[in-house]
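## retry 2 of 3
previous attempt timed out at serialization; input unchanged, resubmitting
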Amino acid sequence: MTAGNDGTPENDDPFAYLYRSEGGEQPDPAAGQPRPPYQPRTSYNQVQRVGERRPQQPPATGGYGYPPQAQYGNGATQQYPQQQYGNGATQQFPGQPGQQPPYGGRPGEPSGPGGRRAGGQGGDASNRKGLLIAAVAVVAAVAIGIAFAMTNSSGDKGNDAKSQNTTPPVATSAPTTEPTPSATPSDFDSGKIDASTLQLAGGAAKSNQWQGANAAGGTYVDGMGTVGATVVWTVTVPEDGPYTFFVNYGNAGDDANLGLTVNGKPRTDLVNLRNYGNYTDWSKAWDNTTYSWVDLKKGANTLTLTCVPGKNCGVNLDQVWLKQGQVKK
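## retry succeeded, writing output
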């Protein structure tokens, strides 16, 4: 009789434990001994009620793969029946009193390194270890994949940003409506001009008889009471449009009127020069001012004051000035 691949004799029945007697003896089929009928086990896998104490089972004394004895430190030994094989070989295993058979085997059940229970427990541990290693590998692979995807995504965004058009956006705001500044101020003001410095004709003449005139040296224009007396002012303006012609004068008599001509064209309306303060002293009548709205063209323009027939023209002319627009002061 030779041993098989798993260490069990070829002629040995692997299911002998199913019909082995409680005493551990096994009938020998070769000797023609009949096999005892199968008896169900009652030493394990029994249902136990809550709170019930199960009696201690006596240690098994026989069965396939059980050690015959165990050696203790005090010299005591425990005997286990030896396993007899067909060739007369025996196998002994150490044990402790009351200890279950090694490798977690059951009485009358193979439990050695090649046994059913030992192999099952070892296989479960190996499977669990293998599953744990596989789970760790899967988690590591997922983490590496996520990191790789994030890296590629960042690179794609960078490439997309570089490939985008770098042309600055077109401004959508409305253009400004402010006018372009001109070479001259928009509100023209000539400043006050002494009437005695203008072109005089027809009996108009300079005088300083009465004190209090605002002109330089107190010099004003007298003789305007003569028909045809004329004062001509040539003034340059920055643009076409309306302007206001101011006249400062002195009048201590009756209200007076003078004709106005703009660029050689006489106006139908007259310039009123009234005695607003009811003055009687010519030296104190210099606080009168009148104005007329005129339309001028860009460049040089002539404004002419003339004593017309049939009108009282007895006034003294002090100063004149021009402002752009139709204003009153």
